[in-house]
Amino acid sequence: MSLLKCYSVQSEFPLNLCICRNLFHRENHTLIDVLQEDPNIKRILIFIDSGLDKRFPKLQKRIERFFSIHPDTFILAGIHVIQGGEEAKQDLVAWQHTLSCIAEAKIDRHSYIMAIGGGAFLDVVGFAAATAHRGIRLIRVPTTTLSQADSGVGIKNGINFMGQKNYLGTFAIPSLVILDFLFTHYQTNENKLAGLVEAVKVALIKDAEFFEWFEENIYELRDYDRDLVEEAIMRSAEAHVLHITEGGDPYELGSSRPLDFGHWSAHYLETISNYTISHAEAVAIGICLDNRYAVRKGWITAEEEERILRIFRFLRFPTYHPLLSTKDENGDYEILKGLKKFQEHLGGELTLLMLTGIGSSRNLRRIDTEVFATCIEDCKARSESSSVPE
After folding, report:
1. 3-state SS, residue 159
2. 129, 112 contact by CB (below 8 A)
3. pLDDT along the chain (390 residues), means of 10
């Protein structure tokens, strides 16, 4: 239940990340310790992901008990369960509901909002926190491996709008991000390993040693060794914090977005599948497509590509989906429209990150769509001939 690690990066863009177990245990002082610089009694309004609430039906009572034994430190302004999952981002309903709760509790900019849940849920509540009163202090508690390893440790909030993923949103640095490993290990079997796709992504673009660690521990990770999964999440989360605070472009004003490696097609796959393809699955497919392009261009070897494919297959991530091969009325690959969507989202020239080796990468500004079309067919043929289920 104790604090495991704490990162407090005091750069131009400060971000505080704490990692613990059982945040709301009566003897866990993580929340008290990291907010001690605020001398006032801290008024906190809490939002819980509806999916998490179902898995942890006693969570609300546990939170109420925790705050009741610290009346000189906190005032609990209320607990609300809000729709979680990608469905919450499809319209304005969950965001507006969150804003109504904030208004009813009379939460102001001297208060805190705490969001406890998965990545899509954190996007919605974070967007409400950033837009109410032009910004209320936010404490993020990501609870899925996917959000703990990636999106939950960040400064982006948003909802989907006008058929585009994350079209409405903000950049807002949270007051605090807390990873509570109590939640990590009680997810559905389908979601337990989902976050590792983002950890592998970080290893591929930034840390060859980390990727080799995945290769060395792949059997244990596949069988969900708790200690190793925690280590993967911690290393990925730390890399995200350092990128945001020291990468020089936390608000993504430029065109380079290394942590979006493989995401140009992933986001579009999610959209055209009506979100029946999960984010983790889409990212794995997107990375494999980009790696095929890198092989075709001679930037990585076929052997390096196979090492990456082996990791994804062992972790049960797909490396191809039939939607990749869907063509429009003109006979063009539908997925390639994602390049334009990604460029529009960047707001500048199209910039894709491509591997030049495991642990190294380059920015690419000119795309050969004919080669990408060939890569799609490569991925399809590989999936049909593979003896390992895709």
Report:
1. strand
2. no
3. 62 78 93 88 96 95 96 96 93 96 96 96 97 96 95 91 88 93 86 93 95 98 95 93 73 64 93 93 97 97 98 96 94 90 72 94 90 96 71
